[in-house]
Amino acid sequence: MGEQDAGFFAEFLTSKKGDGRRRDGNSDATSARAGITAQRLRHLDLLLVAKWKILIDAESGIPVDRPIDLLVANPVSFIVQRLLIHKRRDAGKKAQDVLYIHDTLELFGASLDQLRNVWNEEVRPKMAARTANRAMATAELLFGDVTDVIREAARIPQDRRLQPKDVRDAILYGLEEVFGSAVSPNS
Predict the structure, then answer these.
(1) Model pTM?
(2) What's the pLDDT at 180?
(3) Is beta strand 68-72 parallel, antiparallel or unpaired with respect to 52-56?
(4) Which of 2, 131, 157, 160 would you call most buried, defined as having the most Cβ atoms within 10 angstroms of its Cβ?
């Protein structure tokens, strides 16, 4: 949207239930209503926990007629949701999600204490213990060693030279700071 080179982009999401297949056996990855296609994602409700409000106005460099309060998922909910959906994602999406987790932790690295508070006080209490444990187990499995998924994630950015071990180490450090010692490397 927009006529500028860097126009506005919006992605619509909706909750995914069941096994992700339609009755005819085809994938049930999207939903279409009123001309809008939405991607179906599991654990979407986590992205609504402890939303952050961001003020969008002309001073922020976005050409809007009047200021807008935009609600966005907090980084902790975003990371946990990515961990919970990891197992069922396509190979390319898994690497992309690893890069998203890496970049989110880097972006908010100076605020890891704040993210730990968001986890302990707002996100974790809203989750079933089994679900939280599954997210932590996925993190241990996914980041315990440098894997092909991590290697592929390191190759995605064209503007940065990331090393797989550095990606893994940065993620491990961030996750341990936010979630505690439940996340530990295998080696």
Answers:
(1) 0.79
(2) 87
(3) antiparallel
(4) 131
